[in-house]
Amino acid sequence: MSKQELAVIGQDTDGDCCGRLASAPLDDERAAELAKVFKALGDPVRLRLLSMIASREGGEVCVCEMTPAFDLSQPTISHHLKLLRQAGLIDCERRGTWVYYWVLPGALDRLAGFLTTPQAGQVPA
């Protein structure tokens, strides 16, 4: 796997992609996969981009609407969006000259589920 390729989490078929952080120690492979996703989220620009996309009414946003919110060039914004796509958090579609982005269904829920610890008295999932 090159430095530019990030594994898409939660794409397996058994429905329990990640388990929970507190349920069992991660093996080396799983830790490496999740670290790549968290690395993609570890940049303030990418975190803001993801937030802009996820909070958008209708579920998708054009890159032309996101770029003015940053003091960065359009190619830099596109690079950050590419890293979020490679991490399996968002996807996109070109429509004419513009590209529209949306959060992949379940991507944020899988991360939230991984980070959630069971409440007292609850059996871990």
From TrEMBL:
Q: Give the top-rank taxon of the lineage listed in the UniProt record for this protein.
A: Bacteria
Name the keywords, alphabetized. DNA-binding, Transcription, Transcription regulation
Against InterPro entries, the record matches this protein to: ArsR-like_HTH, HTH_ArsR_DNA-bd_dom, HTH_MetalResp_TranReg, WH-like_DNA-bd_sf, WH_DNA-bd_sf
Question: What Pfam family is a match for this entry?
Answer: HTH_5
Keyword check for Metal-binding: no
Domain named HTH arsR-type: residues: 26-125
Q: Name one GO molecular function term.
A: DNA binding
- The name this protein carries in UniProt is Metalloregulator ArsR/SmtB family transcription factor
- Biological source species: Streptomyces sp. NBC_00180
UniProt lineage: Bacteria, Bacillati, Actinomycetota, Actinomycetes, Kitasatosporales
